[in-house]
Structure formats: structure tokens, C-alpha cells
Specification:
The structure holds 2 protein chains of 2 kinds. Chain A is built from 18 helices and no strands. By secondary structure, chain A is an all-alpha fold. Chain B has helices spanning 3-14, 44-56, 73-77, 84-110, 126-149, 186-195, and strands spanning 34-41, 62-65, 173-178, 199-205. Classes of the chains: A mainly alpha, B alpha+beta.
């Protein structure tokens, strides 16, 4: 007996899309003929970008050198804490860019296509903070061999018996730390390079199945992103005070990531529009939606950080409250108040206005302000650990403040310079994305 | 017609024993007040162009009725932004202030109470209530403010006495210019709607 297997005529071929190949080519031609999609409007010369990138890179290098000098003259704790403040702000921006790209893909977002390349660029520069994180982990481990404690990670190679550290030993040990950091860095670099790579390949080939592929991969990459971000925040931002623990810590840092990512794109888009690029492609309608995301994540950050603080305040367990107690004295109480007013109340009232979100200049100012607030948040998290370790240094938030400024400028300057160079490397938007036609006529009907 | 008379007339529907409507500018042969003039359109682009036409003629008290939302119609009609966000913002501030006053006043000023050994002046426990009352007041203002600005609820609307208007739920579009418009002149309005391409132009009586 012979079995004849036939494919059902109605069954779609794998990877099939709703548009036929001819219809897709027709749409691509129509988009390419749009005057807004001219090459002059969608690319930026590396010469004009270099005018901005070189000063950034120079400032970053000077900051880095000053930080290293500070590490020898003031204290290694202070120098590393200041540099990590800038580094974790950069990492938040890069992770935010990566996160938003995955969200846009998985939700099939139409409005964001003309801005998505900037998110992808931010994400693709994640190699810089990721590699530095590996170097810091190695530095801490080497330092701990001779000092019996890490620079900021005091639990590294701890010699005296400490019951808490004994219990936490399976997680808090040098080998596993290095292993974890390598995993984070690999995951971030692979994910961000994949999305930028597919998006760029689509520019050349117009292969719309790559859009579908990105969408499918994004769904799997988001949990990877969530876990790596959470544990990176545990390792570098929470474990310096190894007695403290908060299960909300990961989402607390993630709130800064989402906020810093959109804020950075608002600033980049402003500079691009001022350079006469993306005319008619990024309009006040796109700005309105970016502004909504900045607003949403300002509120989300406030919600998360208050919930964390509120639960710890109410339950009043010593090992948790001590962390907040250290951050409400020696001048850090002013940072605490600045977080309430500057990171939430004032931006909330400013961003709730429609005009703030729709005016490019105003939104760029708000974006810069929010990134400044993310920096202050990181200062508030990391900087008290220096006084904690070195009470002799003065025990004050503004002791040797030049070193704090140098550290932040060092990390953020280098990151900003690398982002600027990345922007010039390709078209300023995905030229042949399957959803581009939606972004071209995007409008907020509210 | 001033804002004040508009509000008084609307309130007169609910409290006829207290308030009387101001006498209408136009009355029909039967002595009933004129509500306005309605024109019918059968295609979206036609009603869209007609709306731009009416907007450019400078009318302010008029409306477009359609079975579905038409994109950019607010621009074609020249509708200004609503006052509702400001009202909601005021309600939010009132809600937060009420919550703060209620909690702080009772547990710190009137009857200082130690709860779980926390200090009297602690602001932390008040925040959730301040947030929730702020949200509650804002939500109430959004719903009830929206209804009030729309003149709802109401028992009847003069347009319902126009039989052709029933097709607004199906496949017809209507433009109504109300008699309360300061520029209202029956002859001119009819001419304008005719020029704009309206059909079945009818003068409607107010039910009164």
C-alpha cells in the first residue's frame, strides 16, 4: 500500500508574510521614492559626528586618568566608586536601549521605527561597560589577594569567620563572580549585536523575514535580559554592603535602565534634528511618544524605589534599615531629598504637560535632567560605601568631590563618544523595515 | 450667547422650579425655539470638507455626527483643547491635600498616636493614601467632569426628533449648526450648508 502525503493548499509556507513579494517590492519602492527618505536626510557624515565625539572621548580619557591618579592618592574605594557611578549610568543607557529594541520588536511597534536605530546603537555600545565590568571584577579579585577584601566588594577573600559570609559563600565567591560577569557580558553583547546586525542587513537586502526573526528572538531575549540585569545589579550595586538584601533590587536598577535609555534617545534625536537630519521622519508626534515613555519610567522608578524604601522602613529589620540609615547622614540625606523632588515630583509635574513632550528642545532638556538624576541615584547607592570603608577620609558626601566628577566624566564621556561614533556608521533609521510605513505617517490622535 | 447663559440654560433642564431658560433668539411659526439647522452627508470626505468649510466660516457652536471616529476631524472642525486636564489636575492636588490633611491632622495634630513605634512626624505611611486619594479624585473628575462638559446626562436631544438623523448610527454623516451660535442666521446657514454639499437641510425645533 502506498501513502501519498500532500501538503494542504491552505497551509502557509513557513516564514510567509501577509504581503506577497511583489506587493512588498512595490511598498519598498514607494518608501524609497518618499522625499523624506533621501540619502542626505537619513545619513550623517562621520566628520560632523566627530566634532562631537572627539571632545567627549577626550573628556572621558582625562576623567579616566584623573580617576586613576585619585585611586593612588585619595583611596582606591573612592576612585572605583566614582567610576562605577558613571559606568552604571552608561550601562543603564545601553541596557535601556537594548530593552526598548526588544520591546518594540515583540510588540510589533510601528511608531518607533524611525527612532529604533538610535536605540539599537545605544544597545550595541554595551560592549564598553560590559568589558569594563569584567576588568573591574578581575581588578577586585587581584586586589583581594593582598588586602583580604575587594575594593568595593568587601566580601571577596574575607579571612575572619563571618557567619553571614559563610552562609552566602556559595554565591559570593571570586570564581563565581568572574563566571557570572562573563555570562552577563556575553549575553548583552550577543543580543545587542544580533538586533543591530539584522536591522542593518535589512537596510541592504530588504529581507522582511528578518523583522519576523527579530520579533521571535526578542521574546526569548527579554527573560535573558531580565535575569542578567538583575544579577549584575545584585553583584555590583547591592553586594558592596553584603549584609543588605532587597529582592526588588533588580527591578529598581531596571527602572533606571528604561528611563536612561529613552532619555538618551530623546537627546540623540534632538541633536540629529538640529543637524538637519531625519526631517519629517522624527516629528513632534514621535517626540510625544518618547516623552510618554520618559514620563512613564519616571513614575515607575518612583513607584519601585518608594515600595522598596517603604517596606524596609515599615518592617524595621536592622540589616535592611542599616543600608538606608547610612544613606541618610553625612550629607547623603540631601541626595535622598533630591531623589524625591528631582527624580520624581518635579519631572512628574513638568512631563505631564503635553507641550513638554511635544517640543524637542524641552524634551531633550528633560532627558538630560533625568540622566543627571540617574547619576545622582547611582551616587546615592555607591558613594556611601566609601565612607563606610574609610571613615578617616572625612565621612562626608562632598569630600574630594573632584574625584567623583572625574569618575563620572571618565565613564560617561567615553561612552557618549563611542555612541556618537556608532551613530555615523550607518543610516539613521532602518530603511526597509516592514513596519516603516506606519512610522512615516504616525500621529497621536489624542 | 455667553458662557453664563449656556450654563443657566443647561441647569434649567434639571431645576425648572428654580431657573428659567432665557428667551430664544429664533422661534418657529409654532412658537417653539429653534434648535439649529442640520445637513446630511453620505460620504466621509464630503463631511470632512464641509466641516472645514463651516470652520472657516467662523461658526463656534456646531457639531459633526458620524457613525465612527474620523481621523483629523478635530483639526478640520477647529476644536480647541479641552479644559478637562486642568480640572483633573486640580482634583489630583485636592485629593493629595485631603489625604495629607486627614492623616496628618488626625494622627499628629488632633490626637498624636504612636503606631508601631514610628515617629509622629513620619510622612512615609501617608504616601500610599495620598497617592490613592489623588488617583480617586482625578478619576472622579475625569468621568464627572467629562459628563458635565458634554452636558450629560440628559433626557432628550432635539436631534432625536429628526427621523433622518437615526441613520447616524449606520451610514450617514450630519453637520448641525446650533441657533445659539452668535453668527446664526437661518438663511445664511442654509446657504452655507448647501454650498458645502449638504442634503436634506432641515431646521430643527427645540423640544422644550
Amino acid at each position: 500500500m502506498e501513502h501519498i502525503v500532500t501538503e494542504s493548499a491552505n497551509r502557509p509556507a513557513p516564514e510567509a508574510t501577509a504581503l506577497s513579494g511583489a506587493e512588498w517590492q512595490k511598498r519598498l519602492e514607494k518608501i524609497a521614492a518618499d522625499p523624506r527618505m533621501s540619502e542626505e536626510n537619513t545619513t550623517i557624515s562621520s566628520a560632523s559626528v566627530r566634532k562631537l565625539a572627539v571632545p567627549f572621548l577626550f573628556a572621558g580619557l582625562v576623567g579616566l586618568i584623573v580617576t586613576i591618579i585619585g585611586g593612588f592618592t585619595v583611596s582606591p574605594e573612592h576612585a572605583l566608586a566614582s567610576f562605577e557611578v558613571g559606568l552604571f549610568t552608561s550601562l543603564a543607557i545601553a541596557l535601556g536601549g537594548m530593552f526598548w529594541v526588544m520591546v518594540f520588536h515583540s510588540l510589533n511597534a510601528g511608531w518607533s521605527i524611525t527612532l529604533r536605530r538610535q536605540f539599537e546603537n545605544l544597545g550595541a555600545v554595551i560592549w564598553f561597560p560590559a568589558v569594563i565590568l569584567i576588568l573591574i571584577a578581575i581588578l577586585e579579585v587581584i586586589y583581594s589577594q593582598s588586602h583580604h577584601e575587594g575594593i568595593l566588594l568587601k566580601w571577596l577573600n574575607h579571612q575572619e569567620y563571618n557567619h553571614l559570609l559563610h552562609v552566602k559563600e556559595p554565591y559570593l565567591n571570586a570564581g563565581f563572580l568572574i563566571f557570572r560577569v562573563l555570562i552577563y557580558a556575553a549575553a548583552w553583547i550577543i543580543i545587542s549585536r544580533c538586533f543591530l546586525g539584522w536591522s542593518r542587513r535589512m537596510d541592504e537586502t530588504g529581507d522582511r523575514r528578518l523583522g519576523r526573526k527579530s520579533r521571535r528572538v526578542a521574546g526569548f531575549a527579554i527573560p535573558v535580559f531580565a535575569l542578567t540585569t538583575t544579577f549584575a545589579a545584585f553583584d555590583y550595586l547591592m553586594s558592596p554592603d553584603y549584609r543588605f538584601f532587597s529582592t526588588m533590587w533588580g527591578v529598581y536598577y531596571f527602572a533606571s535602565c528604561g528611563l536612561a535609555g529613552v532619555s538618551a534617545v530623546a537627546i540623540i534625536a534632538y541633536f540629529l534634528r538640529r543637524a538637519g537630519k531625519l526631517e519629517g521622519l522624527v516629528t513632534s508626534e514621535h517626540y510625544h511618544d518618547l516623552g510618554k515613555l520618559v514620563f512613564a519610567f519616571t513614575v515607575f522608578w518612583a513607584y519601585i524605589s518608594f515600595s522598596q524604601y517603604f517596606l524596609i522602613w515599615y518592617s524595621n529589620i536592622p540589616e535592611e534599615t542599616a543600608w538606608f540609615y547610612n544613606r541618610q547622614e553625612h550629607g547623603y540625606q540631601w541626595l535622598f531629598i533630591l531623589m524625591i523632588w528631582g527624580h520624581f515630583l518635579v519631572p512628574f509635574l513638568l512631563l505631564i504637560w503635553r507641550r513638554t513632550k511635544r517640543t524637542m528642545g524641552l524634551l531633550a532638556i528633560m532627558g538630560s535632567f533625568m540622566i543627571l538624576m540617574v547619576i545622582m541615584d547611582m551616587v546615592w547607592i555607591l558613594r556611601p560605601m566609601v565612607d563606610f570603608a574609610n571613615p578617616s577620609e572625612g565621612g562626608s558626601a562632598i569630600a574630594n568631590i573632584w574625584l567623583d566628577i572625574a569618575g563620572v566624566v571618565g565613564a560617561l564621556g567615553l561612552f557618549a563618544g563611542l555612541v556618537a561614533l556608532k551613530i555615523a556608521k550607518g543610516p539613521l533609521l532602518p530603511l526597509k523595515d516592514p513596519m516603516l510605513h506606519e512610522a512615516l505617517k504616525h500621529k497621536n490622535y489624542v | 450667547m455667553s458662557m453664563f447663559t449656556t450654563i443657566t440654560n443647561a441647569a434649567a433642564d434639571y431645576f425648572p422650579m428654580l431657573l428659567h431658560k432665557s428667551s430664544p433668539r429664533f422661534v418657529t411659526a409654532s412658537g417653539k425655539p429653534v434648535y439649529g439647522i442640520v445637513a446630511e452627508f453620505d460620504e466621509t470626505p464630503k463631511v470632512f470638507k464641509a466641516a472645514q468649510h463651516v470652520r472657516d466660516a467662523g461658526y463656534t457652536r456646531w457639531d459633526v455626527h458620524s457613525p465612527f471616529p474620523i481621523h483629523d476631524m478635530e483639526e478640520a472642525m477647529g476644536i480647541k483643547g479641552t479644559k478637562l486636564p486642568l480640572m483633573a489636575g486640580a482634583a489630583a492636588i485636592a485629593g493629595v491635600a485631603t489625604a495629607a490633611a486627614l492623616q496628618w491632622g488626625t494622627s499628629f495634630v488632633l490626637y498624636p498616636t504612636v503606631v508601631q513605634g514610628k515617629p509622629f512626624e513620619a510622612w512615609q505611611p501617608f504616601v500610599p493614601i495620598m497617592f490613592e486619594l489623588g488617583v480617586l479624585f482625578t478619576a472622579f473628575m475625569c468621568i464627572f467632569g467629562m459628563l458635565a462638559l458634554n452636558g450629560l446626562p440628559r433626557w432628550h436631544h432635539p436631534l432625536f426628533s429628526h427621523d433622518r438623523f437615526m441613520r447616524v448610527g449606520n451610514d450617514r454623516f450630519f453637520i448641525v449648526i446650533e441657533a445659539t451660535d452668535p453668527d446664526f442666521d437661518p438663511a445664511k446657514v442654509k446657504k452655507l450648508l448647501e454650498d458645502a454639499g449638504g442634503k436634506h437641510i432641515t431646521l430643527l425645533e427645540d423640544a422644550d
